[in-house]
Each structure stands twice: as structure tokens, then as C-alpha cells.
Design goal:
This protein has about 425 residues and is of the alpha/beta class. The chain contains 15 helices and 13 strands.
Length: about 425
Amino acid sequence: MSQDSAAVPDAARKLAARRRREIVAVLLFSGGPIFESSIPLSVFGIDRQDAGVPRYRLLVCAGEDAPLRTTGGLELSAPYGLEAISRAGTVVVPAWRSITQAPPPAALDALRRAHEEGARIVGLCTGAFVLAAAGLLDGRPATTHWMYAPTLAKRYPSVHVDPRELFVDDGDVLTSAGTAAGIDLCLHIVRTDHGADAANALARRLVVPPRRTASDLGHQRYLDRSLPEEIGADPLAEVVAWALEHLHEQFDVETLAARAYMSRRTFDRRFRSLTGSAPLQWLITQRVLQAQRLLETSDYSVDEVAGRCGFRSPVALRGHFRRQLGASPAAYRAAYRARRPQGGGSDSALRPERGERAAPGSGGSERFPAAAVAGHGQTPALAAAEAGEQGEAGKPRSDAFASRLPEAPVGRGAGRPVLPSQRERPVG
């Protein structure tokens, strides 16, 4: 789900007289991936006024000396240099070529100057590393590709990194997650500038959804066991490997610290320095990921899934699962299976669970909870979600479909060993 600022004072900063709102500068570097680089070029650089999309003026700028080589050995020649950025009201930095390399100082200076003069600065995918290097993300919420989020949080601890967002709009500085999320953010910019009709018209031309949100069960948040590469050579790697192999057991961070022959305080500090997140936060995330897999591939009840993932109770699983994935385990499983093609996957994943029965005429391949059959007009996923949020005798739980609580995102600092989550912001 996107984050949009409800009130960001910097967003009201007056644009310098020589800059124009309709001018978008895209900053390209050698080694950048061509797909991510082409996203803003396609969105802002093609005249689609016949389809009801207001026209932008695109300036493609070289962020360093030519030639600019990209994916597959292609060589690009940008028509403008860094000086052209001085005319833009929006500056877009697509994916950066390598998170281990520092961006050119001249490009960083140009970005800082543009921001000071009121321009909107946008980082797509690992372009967030360029914005962070320029100091534009200090004290701000931001996102990037989930695989690089721990590294961003570790390298720039003042940045509030949330890897589960499609994009984050913090007013005058915006960032997006992986490749497809760059399209989402560009559409969001068009929607902000010209309204929903223009954004929807552009989405139709691009043949993409006009608005995706991470809380929509049609778009699952991507969790992974990946850790920064540098942990592989660290003594903690063995402890991490042991933890991943024993997620079904109930152990805590103290157990991991003991296996590393460290005090809890030292272990927390070492783990955070390597991964950018607290060990408790990481451990809970791995347990939720394991639960996600079991819900997708098995017929275990939610209670059984909780036990097989090391949660002390089903209540603990439901709370953490909802905070990370925006839905209850029952709703997640129902929506996942409703989207699956008939006949795909294992047979066990298609058999009705307790409290569910196959839809008439479906041959058992499409599954409806009993409540869904009784509730005419409801989709299987919605009915399953509602059924999964009921207590005994159909009595709703007090926290059913409650708003997600604000949590501390990755990199916000020590003191609250909780899962990262989106801030309470309206969806844009």
C-alpha cells in the first residue's frame, strides 16, 4: 500500500521561477537497467493528449559523462546534461546501477539544488540510494526493492525504511519499490497533478491497473529470507541458518544470542549492524513468512500453522500476520486459493478444510466456506475473509478488520522491537 503525506510542510515550498511544473527531468547513469529507466520515459515522454492524458515535457539528462551503457551492452546518448535539471519541476532517478557504489558528486549536488528550489524528487527502486546519498531521505519514510531495504536501512540509519510499501509519497520526495512499483508511482504522480481521470486514461494506454495497493490481496507483499550478502562471511550466519531450520520450535532472541556466545545486548547490536533490523523483528518476519507458505500449500488449520511456525498461540500469529500482510490468515488463504487457476498446484491445497465445502459443480477445485454459500452475491474470497474473522457462534472478534496500528519501520532506531508497518496515511 502506498503512503501519502497528510501534511508535509516541505511540499508547499514554492517552486523557483525558472522551473516549470510540467517539465520532468529523468537522470540516467551508465550501468542502469534499461527497463526501470524506460518507465518514466514512457509515462512522461509520450504525447497521449488524444487519450485525455495531459502532456509533460521530458528532459532526459546524463548524470555523468557519456557514454551511458545499459542492459545488454546498449549505449545511450542523453540529449541533456545536469544543467537541464535546473528547469524541471520533477526530477526522477530510476534504479541506480549498484548499491555498493557512490553516485557522482555533481549529480548529488544537482539533486540537492533542485530540492531546495522546490522541485519534486522521485527515486524508483534502487534510485532511493541516490536520494539517500544526497541527504534527501534523512528523517523521512521511504521504500526500495525489498531485497535491498536492509542495506538501505543499515547504510542510512536516519531513513525510515519500509520495504512493504509499493511507494511512499512524502510530499516533495517520493520513492518506489521494485520494477512494477515504479509504474505505480508514476501513475500516482499523474493522478496527483491532473486527477484520477487522467491517471486512469494513462493506465488504459499502458494496459496496467490504474491503482494497486499492497493491502489488496490481489497484490501480495513480497517477503523473503534474504539477508545482505555480507552476512555470509560473518559468524552470525551459522546462527541465522539454525534459526531458519528451527522456525517450528519456540525459541527467542536470547536463545540465538546464546548460540552465538554473546550477550543479548551485544547480539542485538551485531545483528542490527549486519541486517539493518532488530533480531526480534527479523525472527517474527521469518515466522510470518513460514506461515504464509503453509497457508498456501497445506490444509493445516490456522491453529496448526501457528504451532508449526513457532508462535506461542494462534492469537499471536493472527496479530503479526495482519500487521505484515494486511489481512487475517484465513482471509489470506481464501483469497490466495480463489485466485489460483483450477487444476494448478497440489491436490491437498484444493481440498476443502474443516468448515468449508466445495462449490456445487466445481468438482472440488473451487472452494467456498459455508458462510459464502449462504451469503449470496459475495465473492468466495470476501466471504472467506468474513468467515475467518468470526469467533464462536458467528460472534465477530473485537479486532476484526481493525485498522492497522502504526509501527516503527525498519531503520527507525532501537527501542521498539516491533514489525515495520505503514504509517497511518490516506491511500493516494
